[in-house]
Amino acid sequence: MLEMLPYPSGALHMGHVRNYSIGDALARYMWMNGYNVLHPMGWDSFGLPAENAAIKNNTPPKEWTLSNIAAMKVQMKRLGFAYDWSREVTTCLPDYYRWNQWFFLKLYQSGLAYRKNSKVNWCPKCATVLANEQVVGGMCWRHEDTPVEQRELEQWFLRITKYADELLRDLEKLQGWPEKVRIMQQNWIGRSEGTLVDFDLGGTVGPAGSTITVFTTRVDTIYGATSVQLAPEHPIVTDLIARNAELRAQVEQLIAEQRRAKEAGDIGNIEKHGVFTGRYAKNPYNGEAVPVWVANYILMDYGTGAIMSVPAHDERDYEFAQKYKLEIRLVILPASTDPEETMTAPPLPFTPTDGILVNSGEFSGLGCEEAIARMSAMAEEKNFGKATVTFRIKDWGISRQRYWGTPIPMVYCEKDGVVPLAEKDLPVLLPDNVPITLAGGSPLASVPSFLNTTCPKCGGPARRETDTMDTFVDSSWYFYRYADAHNSGAPFDTATIAYWFPIDQYIGGVEHAILHLIYSRFWTKFMRDMGLVKNDEPVTRLFTQGMVIKDGAKMSKNLGNVVSPDDMVARYGADATRLYSLFAAPPDRDLDWQESGIEGIQRFLGRLYRFYLRNRQVRNSPQADNVPPTELSSEARSLQRKLHQTIKRVSHDFQGRWHFNTCIAAIMELVNEIYSAEEAIAGGRVPPSLILDVQRNIALLLAPMAPYLAHELWEMAGETGNLLKASWPKHDPALAAEDEIEIPVQVNGKLRGLVVVPAAASEDEIKQAGLADEKVKAAIAAKQIVKVIVVPKKLVNIVVR
RNA sequence: GCGAAAGUGGCGGAAUUGGCAGACGCACCAGACUUAGGAUCUGGCGGGUAAAACCGUGGGGGUUCGAGUCCCCCCUUUCGCACCA
User: What is the spatial distance, in angstroms and rounded to an integer, between the CA atom of A774 and the C1' atom of B56?
Assistant: First the structure.
């Protein structure tokens, strides 16, 4: 049972309290059901806020982070979450991050970590690089108002794309994950099957034989291609503008437009512009030379950065062709059972894939799908293209120009170039007393004692890599460490992992649907391939809880609507705080925090407590003197029935849908029932053994959700053993059963009366009782009964005319 | 634009399979206890009516003896994706 570990910002917020209250309730429930539950906690403790705090308060990141951890641990303990602290994982400590470095070396050896000069996302506020996943709508994921810039930098990348296909395919296996998260990952991976086709530029531009390779998912429409469109940053364009000043100016404008749109996050709405290069490229299928354009709606980082433009069968191409009066050539007709329709030209652009090819040489008459297969095969045969698969997901850039992260264990030697450290030289320790600025550039580069080292290969002078790792590296495998937290010879022991993994249940916010959860899946697959783990996936079941809302908005410091857990605990107690976070909404939905709501919970707990206080003497009653149900007073029998019904309802919700709000409501109903039986209890009409039974069971039912009070009540009921080791109660169906039930009687579907019948009444008896009801009689007087519907135990409906 | 989820009293939310809509809690009203009540206990509480009738689950149609629940169309909100070739 695992909840996502927090970033140690200094204080828990209500979102954490909710997340951990859900997880703790489930862990405790599982313990009471006899399972061996591993329920750990840790700290995702590298990252930028520690550096910001260092600047602001002049406190070293390490000090700030460790004191935050200490403070938050106190908060967690106060809330009563049952974690195994002996397995605590703190990612910023060397005994953890050394294994990040170890993994990095393994990745490097496997060719999965590599260095590349590339255009990267740069957040000026963070003064560091961001992974693609950390760019949200053109903005930094941490600074919603800061546009991400593009910079050219040399960076370390992890080859997550090697697993792109498997990451996509295995989503199928994750049936215990929310559909929504699977779809988000599927979109992120963005697999697309298509064809690469070379358009020959030979004789028209550049050196003879040079080609433009386009990527298309609709090669079947290629006879309708009337131009080729290049991304403004395409290498061929770069080459062309080097020799054409006029074109250069125009292309630069396109680039600027594209960049602006990207930064504004509305690249989807960019006004399509283009410029003709004056060159032509040859369509290898029909030998036709089509004009080559540069257009701002073509992105260099998708596919090949070049497309064939088929205006008749693509919306974007259609729009573009209309604007520039390019030829629009129809090559697909609708395939319809109606021959008339098949012959008529469809409204343009016509994009379905179930049409029939026309004007397409030898391929005319084929259906689209078959045409795609045959045309791809032909391209490969004749060596001008091939079927291919592209992905939207890119390799994971992990270099960060920051101090507070895992040092990357590589050195640069003048003689030997890039050299990995040996495993025995790990960990590369993060030095203390490093001046932190947000000036940009890696802070570690300013620390000579860190920077200057010797080459592991030749022993000559070398300098260390000064970038640190993205913190998502830390969280990609932290949960494995819980299972073997003190292993100093390996990240963990494989056999131990095989016992605990995959994680049965992981709980956290949906905001990690892509970043953390896709990196973790990648990391697991890599570890499996190196033989370190046996599972293909880290997490069998994932649950994403809703946000905590106040006054209609997500709690945030900016809006000033945060509720402090410490305040709540001080005013209402830990149990009430936890219980309210479970009661106010089902866990998958957003929760609206209302101060008056938690007061109601506190009242309920008080009511419950007073019942135990008033009836302390029952603890001495012999449990064995059970009175047969038939000999109980009606008040006692009602109470007994309600008790067993409550056990049934609470157990059911714990096993199924985790609607703790209705669990708590059920226990409240039971307490209300107790209060209505108060007089009977005082009058001695409820046997002490039954009262004691009620007391013991309520303590058990409440134990997962309100542990402090539950333990106290458990003792008040005369028990001394550990409540978590007591078994979860079972209801007795016979005792839960009603003797009599109320049956609504409808006439033509409208409620007209209520009759009380024995629970075991036959259909006919129910029907007769319904027909005999005075109100019903009145409603059907002078009407003809067409039929009578009797649903056993549910209702009677009399249809009259 | 595409995809998903949601829409129920004054509020948070119940109604697990088509079967008494509004459990439970909050707020509110009344009463009891009390010097006092922001404590506690009891009762009331969708709209409407003197009481009924009747009307009520975003709107409009439909299926059914019966629809919050199933089907069709539409509206609103939230989230995700968005020239992905």
Answer: 26
Are A594 and A46 in contact by the 8 Å Cβ rule? The answer is: no
Which nucleotide across the nucleic acid strands is nearest to A786, CA versus C1'? B65
As ranges, strand B nucleotides with an atom below 7 A of a protein CB are: 3-4, 11-16, 19-21, 23-27, 39-43, 54, 65-67, 79-85
CB atoms < 10 A from the CB of A564, how many?
A: 13
- Return the bridge partners of A43, or none: A90
pLDDT of A624 higher than 80:
no
- For residues A474 and A100, the answer to whether their CB atoms sit within 8 Å is yes
Q: Beta A591-592 vs A548-550: how paired, if at all?
A: parallel
CA of A298 to C1' of B83 (A): 8
Q: What are phi and psi of A117, to 5 degrees?
A: -85, 120
Look up the pTM and report it: 0.92
Confidence of residue A208 (pLDDT cuts 50, 70, 90): very low
What is the spatial distance, in angstroms and rounded to an integer, between the CA atom of A671 and the C1' atom of B36?
29
* Predicted confidence (pLDDT) per residue in A322-374, tens digit: 999 999 999 998 877 666 666 677 787 888 888 899 999 999 999 999 999 99
**Predicted local confidence at residue A780, as pLDDT:** 81
> Residue A260 has which token pair?
């602006």
Q: What is the ipTM of this complex?
A: 0.95
Mean pLDDT within A710-726: 93
Closest nucleotide to residue A606 (Cα to C1')? B40
Token pair 């974007």 is found at: A316
CA of A363 to C1' of B43 (A): 84
- From the list A334, A136, A317, A139, the residue with the least C-alpha distance to A214 is A317
Report which of A144, A141, A118, A145 is spatially closest to residue A130, judged by C-alpha positions: A141
CB of A345 closer than 8 Å to CB of A333: yes
Give how far Cα A790 sits from Cα of A24, A192, A785, Å.
45, 56, 14
Q: With pLDDT > 90 as the criterion, what percentage of chain A qualifies? A: 67
